[in-house]
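pinned: reference chain
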Amino acid sequence: MKPGLTAFFILLFALLCVLGILANGFIVLVLSREWMRSGRLLPSDMILISLGASRFCLQWVGMVRNFYFFLHLVEYCRGTAWQFFGLHWDFLNSATFWFGTWLSVLFCVKIATFTHPTFLWLKWRFPGSVPWLLLGSLLVAFIVTLLFFWGNYSMYQGFFIRKFSGNMTYEQWSRRLEIYYFLPLKFITLSIPCSIFLISIALLITFLRRHTRRMWHNAHSLQDSSTQALTSALRSIISFLVLYVMSFVSLVIDAALFLSSDSDWYWPWQILTYLGTSVHSFILILSNLRLRRVFRQLLLLARGFWVA
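pinned: its structure tokens
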């Protein structure tokens, strides 16, 4: 890849991470301020604060790790930086996936009105279980991090020992570890929250489509506010689905195809990996009434500042 094109992708990746950091920091600050004012926190706010905080930290860790990997490739592989960044990234990434899953489940139980007894029970129990689910997600993320740390530590030790069974080279041994340990581990640990996410999103989309059809048939005007609101919610949910699945697929493929920093596809792939955590944060801001109101106020202040 030409140096100019590489520089473009690096700048695009940095811009994406900075925007994601600002958006997630904004979500955490606004909802935390509301929490301090009212003295209570809604289940949706708990999940949004947790998701925003984990994404905020994940974007920072991802940006610093990728630039350190790009600028200091040899030191990254030989030193403890590999384990240090991997430890934080694996924990934050796992927690982020689980928080996103609980957000989709909460959307489903709050919006959908299925009459199945199991769904009614979940609709009644889920909001009160949110704090425990968030704590459980952190525990699961911690266990997953330990499993990944064991593999990273084995690779780190193998880099110096250089003695493997069957006269294998370090590159062959590390490749086998990536395929037979890291890939199944990442696929399993991400598939569980992803499966829950897909089920809840599928139920929600099914309900919204049916309800929207009924409202379109019964509405006297195509500009009916309720119909437009449901259509907007359906688009928001579908965008959430696309970005979540994109992140899942990119992470699983990343575990199977290790890309060095000198690869032509390294920076475009990093952009694809972090796209969901940045873009979806803006979707959450624009779809939440309180966040959207404060965001508009900030834009007006910024506009007045530049005009003055």
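why pinned: The first helix runs from residue 3 to 38. The CA atoms of residues 61 and 88 lie 7 Å apart.
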